[in-house]
Write a structure and sequence with these properties.
Helix content is about 0%, strand content about 50%. With about 130 residues, it is mainly β. Strands 2, 4, 5, 6, 9, 10 and 11 form a 7-stranded mixed β-sheet that branches. Strands 1-3-8-7 form a 4-stranded antiparallel β-sheet, with no helix packed on it. A hairpin with a 7-residue loop joins β5 and β6. The N and C termini lie far apart (about 35 Å).
Length: about 130
């Protein structure tokens, strides 16, 4: 599956951005899909995920709960990350990722994801 991320940019603290990740090759319904981010000098970290199956399909890192929302459009085979109340510490390159082999206990671990988008930069100024 190929992933194409877009929507990054520069915004002031308190502002909003919406990231998109379009998939081609296979449908999202077979995968865990979501977002990770990597700030300069830091490791890639989990942001939000949509998990296949089950009733509780959306999971968020504690640092973004209540501010970020992940959603998907099955027709467009696209997932979105709506980011509100942005903070300077949200500044990072954001990556969409997909995996058919993660389970609930590993879904926040970047090493378990096989497909990655190219990354889109989000810069939040104070």
């Amino acid at each position: 599956v190929q992933l194409q991320a877009s929507g990054g940019g520069s915004v002031q603290a308190g502002g909003s951005l919406r990231l998109s990740c379009a998939a081609s090759g296979r449908t999202f319904s077979r995968f865990f899909v979501g977002w990770f981010r990597q700030a300069p000098g830091k490791e890639r970290e989990f942001v939000a995920i949509w998990s296949r199956g089950g009733s509780n399909r959306y999971h968020y890192a504690d640092s973004v709960k209540g501010r970020f929302t992940i959603d998907r459009d099955n027709v467009k085979n696209t997932i979105y990350l709506q980011m509100n109340s942005l903070k300077p510490e949200d500044t990072a390159v954001y990556y969409c990722a997909a995996s058919a082999r993660v389970i609930m206990s590993t879904m926040t671990l970047a090493d378990y994801y096989d497909y990655w988008g190219q990354g889109t930069l989000v810069t939040v100024s104070s």
